[in-house]
Design a protein that fits this description.
about 725 residues, Nucleotidyltransferase, domain 5, about 50% helix, globular, ATP-binding, nucleotide-binding, mismatched DNA binding, P-loop_NTPase
């Protein structure tokens, strides 16, 4: 459980950021609240279910909440077992909300929940702020319902590319990291160090990935069964198997290289400590569970533990011996070797039975003493009347044995619950290792291997990506990805206005930059030849049109809401990607809005901005703001043929080549001809307007200069005195 309190603005910018970071499924709101409607809109925009509760539930007495916490919390060793001593309970507003949640979920009603929770403060400033638009624009997550095992999962999203995890806990942690890129330089560095080790040590990486991690169970799933007292001896044995396998994994991480030791200590030591805490658990399992019976798929308490169990075990062994003797008799009857050509086996569907190969089936086909159960690729299963009787007797004895051992099993489960904390720690450590191995596998197996980004803790903001690629697109078949550079410097270039033809690669380019920055901040290597960057505080985006019909919002309204959020949030440590802003209204209004937003980001926020647009007028911004640069996606037109080169070049692309793209899409010739005619008329009209505008501007300047006397127009170096310059600016304005 985590609590947080913060001061927000009128638009709930911080709240929306928190929703993206934590990914809640449901939000509880008071049934009557002044700001309820606005908060509900934010929740729905982020696909969070809204549930209303009575106002009085939010006014619950603090004492009641403390009492509930005293039941639910697991206090650390040496900590006073009273929730009043925890700093988090001083957050009165958060505590009030927590009380509503505890009541809504009825957590105290389930004894299995008692003593199983921690309460901590959530610091959202630890993470890079992601808005919902950026999460969508960067394709961080696959479409709902996409199977982790499907081919589409791998290239459909960034998570699919990086999530090569082998354990369920690894998959969950990877998705969490994707929503929570870090601002903490040291943690990012630790992750990069470990990923680099696994990239450089192929044998260690392959052994962990191919032979160990995939054989580990979902520890948290087993722990939930333990806490609910629903676990079985099989669950206990699954945990025991983890204790047996993890030391072999640690052996792989042992090295004599001092530098590697320093890197791996962040993984090795915590796992080793958790194993030490579980030594008594391991000893308990070995003393109580019959490990020989496990080899036959039976999970039983050792017979020596109880006199009645010992008696049942002797009876079961006697019946089993009779079945083995009967196996020898049948083998001799049909002329096969017992234990090799004919085997005694058990499956829950048929009980004990004999199995022979398909080619030996003729030996029993016409013998009425043998009844065939089924014939599959693995062989022919059959029984005799005597074996069926033995099997039924054995099953009856086994049921009695299991009933007899229930008291002992319940005690084992009770003791095992006491080890939940070290198991939880080990689960987290395995998930952490799995994610970093996954990063290394993704980096090593990419079409072009990823590289380690160089991160800067402090100093002027910088972003230098050499030959950056999009990790999803380069995985697709028949795609020859064209890489490009992205060079930002706080002192020289903070904003790029990107023009170019439709389908020319503008959107892909700006997305690739955003994805690469995010990958670096979660600890992954990046798809570049080289990469340098500062620690960013935000990755914000507005890419593509989105009519939000279910929420009653038009394309333009969604665009304005998301862009307003960007302006409010962006700082000089932010990365902003904007594509095709202003298309949802008239051309001139859209252009004006796009210009003002680009100028605001460049001059006020001073964030790093990639601004893709078809409004050619916005490129003039580079003449007014020194840190704005123009670039374009290169294309070649040869007669009627348009060739898209997907390369970023300096300067402005004067045309968008929309009509040429329409031709590529096989538009009817009549439509193309009409479009070209209308385009030519618009260009002619635009030229007339521009000529008149230039004439008007010249007239204004001439009038202004006529009122100023103190400058020398014949001088080679035209200059104004400060007073004259101030007067000129006043007159022009």
């Amino acid at each position: 459980m985590a609590v947080i309190e913060f001061v927000d603005d009128d638009f709930y910018t911080e709240l929306e950021a928190l929703i993206v970071v934590t990914g809640p499924k449901e939000c509880l709101l008071p049934s009557v609240a002044a700001e309820y409607e606005r908060v509900e809109q934010i929740m729905k925009r982020n696909n969070v279910i809204v549930t209303t509760r009575k106002v009085k539930e939010f006014m619950k007495d603090k004492v009641d909440v403390i009492d509930s916490l005293n039941k639910l919390l697991r206090f650390r060793e040496g900590q006073h077992p009273n929730a009043n001593t925890i700093p988090e309970v001083s957050k009165s507003l958060a505590l009030s909300a927590l009380g509503v949640i505890l009541n809504y979920l009825e957590l105290t009603q389930e004894p299995g929940n008692h003593g199983q929770f921690r309460l901590e403060s959530l610091d959202s400033n630890r993470f890079v702020h992601l808005d919902a638009a950026a999460v969508s624009a960067l394709n961080l997550f696959p479409n709902p319902g996409t199977s982790v095992k499907s081919n589409a999962y791998r290239w459909q999203s960034v998570l699919g590319v990086l999530d090569r995890c082998r354990t369920p806990q690894g998959h969950r942690l990877m998705a969490q990291w994707m929503k929570q890129p870090l601002q903490d330089y040291e943690i990012i560095k630790d992750r990069h160090d470990i990923v680099e080790y696994f990239v450089n040590n192929t044998i260690v990486r392959s052994e962990l990935y191919d032979n160990h991690l995939k054989k580990l169970p979902d520890i948290m799933f087993v722990l939930k069964r333990l806490l609910r007292r629903k676990a079985s001896l099989q669950d206990i044995f699954r945990l025991y198997q983890v204790i047996l396998r993890v030391p072999r994994m640690l052996t792989l991480l042992e090295t004599n290289d001092l530098e590697s030791i320093a890197v791996l200590n962040n993984i090795y030591n915590p796992i080793k400590d958790s194993l030490n805490d579980l030594k008594l658990f391991k000893s308990m399992v070995e003393q109580i569970i019959d490990l020989q019976a496990v080899e036959h798929g039976e999970y039983l308490v050792k017979a020596d533990f109880d006199s009645q169990l010992k008696k049942r075990k002797e009876e079961m062994d006697e019946v089993y011996s009779k079945m083995k003797h009967h196996l020898s008799t049948v083998a001799k009857d049909i002329g096969l070797d017992a234990g090799s050509s004919i085997k005694l086996e058990f499956v829950s569907q048929h009980g004990y039975h004999f199995r022979i190969t398909l080619k030996d089936e003729t030996l029993i086909r016409k013998n009425n003493s043998y009844r065939i159960l089924d014939a599959v690729k693995g062989g022919v299963r059959f029984i005799t009347t005597k074996l069926q009787d033995y099997s039924e007797s054995f099953a009856t004895l086994k049921i009695a044995y299991e009933e007899q051992q229930q008291t002992i099993v319940a005690e084992v489960i009770r003791v095992a619950v006491g080890y939940v904390e070290p198991w939880t720690m080990l689960n987290s450590q395995i998930a952490y290792l799995d994610c970093l191995v996954s990063f290394a596998v993704s980096a090593s197996t990419a079409p072009i291997p990823y590289v380690r980004p160089k991160m800067y803790r402090e100093g002027p903001s910088v972003l230098k990506l050499i030959q950056v690629r999009h990790p999803c697109l380069e995985l697709q078949e028949d795609v020859n990805y064209i890489a490009n550079d992205a060079m930002f410097d706080a002192k020289e270039t903070s904003t790029y206005i990107i023009t170019g033809p439709n389908m020319g690669g503008k959107s892909t380019y700006i997305r690739s930059v955003g994805v690469t920055v995010l990958m670096a901040h979660i600890g992954s290597f990046v798809p570049c030849e080289s990469a340098e960057m500062s620690i960013f505080d935000c990755i914000l985006g507005r890419v593509g049109a989105d009519d939000n019909f279910t929420k009653g919002l038009s394309t333009f309204m969604v665009e304005m809401i998301e862009t307003a959020g960007i302006i409010r949030r962006a700082t000089d440590r932010s990365l902003v990607i904007i594509d095709e802003l202003g298309r949802g209204t008239s051309t001139y209004e859209g252009c004006g809005i796009a210009w003002s937003i680009a100028e605001c980001l460049a001059k006020e926020s001073k964030c790093f901005t990639l601004f893709a647009t078809h409004f050619q007028e916005i490129t003039d911004l580079a003449s007014y703001v020194e840190n704005v640069k123009n670039c374009h996606m290169q294309a070649i037109v040869d007669g009627e043929c348009l060739t898209l080169l997907y390369q970023v070049k300096p300067g402005v692309m004067e045309k968008s080549f929309g009509i040429q793209v329409a031709k590529l899409a096989n538009f009817p010739p009549g439509v193309i001809k009409l479009a070209q005619k209308f385009y030519n008329e618009c260009e002619d009209h635009r030229g007339v307007i521009k000529e008149k505008h230039d004439t008007d501007c010249l007239a204004v300047l001439q009038k202004c200069f006529s009122e100023i006397d103190n400058f020398d127009c014949d001088s080679d170096n035209f200059a104004l005195t400060p007073d004259a310059l101030e007067r000129l600016l006043f007159l022009v304005n």
